[in-house]
């Protein structure tokens, strides 16, 4: 069914390109015909029986049947289940308003923290950083965040960020940082003891032993955006030798 | 005309207290009519039947399942041990399995089998004491002094009245 995708893998596609599945529906009698499902990730959207491209980028594929567009952008669009770094901007009644970098502020209920009850409110102030994930995120509704998983545990989510440094990078760099066996991370973890919080919305928070070290790590990560692997390794080596 | 006027109305016949005197035929007739009224009043949409087609295209708005992205908190070189524990917990199975193997090896060195056995040995004794009666307890104390291993055969004979011999 998705042979039309197969020959486009790795090619650059533009918004408006379309795939339709009607061309290759020649059912052979020998094969067992079974319906194959296609999962289209970010950058692809379904329109009836066809799939439209809605972001420009490279078509990627993951076994068995997942396709998405690998694109560069800085504007975050909330997606359900993604963990992000938010900044609390207001307290209103029983919800906090949280800025996540999307088109709209997200709400975060004060009950959506580990161990929170109606009596026992979490200690969250305006301006605090929260690491949280979306449970509602679609284009028609206000996004909603929680700081607990389905079992009610925090698992590292919640208020954080004393003595660290927050900065913004592109969404592409965030994905490179979070990728399994990421080469940036493997270079960084040899360098110096530090702690990182990476939100899918492009915010990265860094903390290291001292303010200087924190800034070094932050600058390194920011400069990773436009560097080749050899350039980056050379820079990391210079930092490790104490050149900066 | 006279016979018509004698006839009772249907609504009256349908009432509970009238049902006793009715014969089977009229009862059946009434029931049928009632059914017809109900089915007539049932309304339905005059639409072509919707065919539930299986949707072969699933949309996914997030990169996380596509690229197998990891958990967003990390710590290196033991900067924040709590987060490093979380990293093992939240990230993939391969890393977790490695950690588990390490756990197993440490577990063996933690408490040796001998130590465990020694501990349970004393536990058996104290649990036994807990469930024993007061009289038995005092007896146990005496026996314990005699028997070190505590695995004597239970002498459960109740103290019975012994007839004085002449």
TrEMBL record, chain A:
Protein name (Swiss-Prot/TrEMBL): Exosome complex component RRP40
Keyword DNA-binding in record: no
GO cellular component: cytoplasmic exosome (RNase complex); nuclear exosome (RNase complex); nucleolus
Principal cellular location given in the protein's record: cytoplasm
Pfam families per UniProt: KH_6, Rrp40_N, RRP40_S1
Domain K Homology: 164-212
Keywords linked to the UniProt accession: Cytoplasm, Exosome, Nucleus, RNA-binding, rRNA processing
GO molecular function, one term: RNA binding
Recorded family membership: Belongs to the RRP40 family.
Gene Ontology biological process: CUT catabolic process; exonucleolytic trimming to generate mature 3'-end of 5.8S rRNA from tricistronic rRNA transcript (SSU-rRNA, 5.8S rRNA, LSU-rRNA); nuclear polyadenylation-dependent rRNA catabolic process; poly(A)-dependent snoRNA 3'-end processing; regulation of gene expression; TRAMP-dependent tRNA surveillance pathway; U4 snRNA 3'-end processing
Keyword Ligase: no
Domain Exosome complex exonuclease Rrp40 N-terminal: 41-75
SUPFAM superfamilies in UniProt: Eukaryotic type KH-domain (KH-domain type I), Nucleic acid-binding proteins, Ribosomal L27 protein-like
Species for this entry: Myripristis murdjan (pinecone soldierfish)
Location relative to the cell: Cytoplasm; Nucleus, Nucleolus
UniProtKB/TrEMBL annotation, chain B:
A Pfam family annotated for this UniProt entry: MPP6
InterPro entries named in the record: MPP6
Highest taxon in the source lineage: Eukaryota
One GO BP: maturation of 5.8S rRNA
Protein name: M-phase phosphoprotein 6
Gene behind this protein: MPHOSPH6
């Amino acid at each position: 069914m998705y042979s039309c995708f197969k020959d486009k893998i790795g090619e650059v596609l533009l918004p408006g390109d379309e795939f339709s599945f009607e061309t290759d529906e020649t059912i052979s009698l020998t094969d067992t015909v079974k319906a194959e499902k296609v999962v289209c990730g970010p950058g692809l959207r379904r329109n009836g029986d066809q799939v439209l491209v809605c972001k420009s980028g490279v078509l990627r594929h993951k076994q068995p049947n997942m396709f998405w567009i690998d694109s560069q952008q800085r504007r975050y669009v909330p997606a359900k289940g993604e963990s992000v770094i938010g900044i609390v901007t207001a307290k209103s009644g029983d919800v906090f308003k949280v800025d996540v970098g999307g088109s709209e502020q997200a709400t975060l209920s004060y009950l959506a923290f580990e161990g929170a009850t109606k009596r026992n409110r979490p200690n969250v102030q305006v301006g605090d950083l929260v690491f949280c994930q979306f449970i509602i995120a679609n284009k028609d509704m206000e996004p909603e965040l929680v700081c607990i998983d389905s079992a009610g545990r925090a698992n590292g989510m919640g208020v954080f960020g004393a003595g660290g440094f927050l900065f913004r990078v592109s969404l592409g760099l965030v994905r490179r940082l979070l990728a399994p066996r990421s080469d940036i991370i493997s270079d960084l973890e040899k360098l110096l003891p530090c702690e990182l919080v990476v939100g899918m919305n492009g915010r990265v928070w860094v903390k290291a032993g001292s303010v200087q070290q924190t800034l070094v790590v932050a600058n390194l990560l920011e400069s990773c955006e436009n560097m080749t692997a050899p350039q980056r390794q050379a820079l990391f080596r210079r930092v490790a030798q104490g050149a900066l | 005309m006279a016979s018509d006027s004698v006839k009772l109305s249907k609504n009256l016949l349908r009432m509970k207290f009238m049902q006793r005197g009715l014969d089977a035929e009229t009862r059946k007739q009434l029931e049928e009519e009632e059914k017809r009224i109900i089915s007539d009043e049932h309304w339905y949409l005059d639409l072509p039947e919707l065919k539930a087609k299986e949707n072969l295209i699933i949309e996914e708005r997030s990169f996380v399942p596509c690229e197998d992205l990891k958990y967003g908190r990390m710590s290196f070189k033991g900067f924040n041990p709590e987060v490093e524990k979380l990293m093992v917990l939240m990230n993939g199975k391969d890393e977790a399995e490695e950690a588990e193997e390490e756990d197993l090896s440490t577990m063996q060195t933690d408490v040796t089998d001998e130590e465990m056995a020694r501990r349970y040995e004393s536990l058996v004794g104290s649990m036994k004491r807990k469930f024993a009666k007061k009289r038995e307890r005092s007896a146990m104390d005496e026996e314990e002094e005699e028997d070190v291993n505590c695995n004597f055969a239970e002498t459960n004979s109740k103290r019975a009245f012994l007839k004085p011999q002449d």
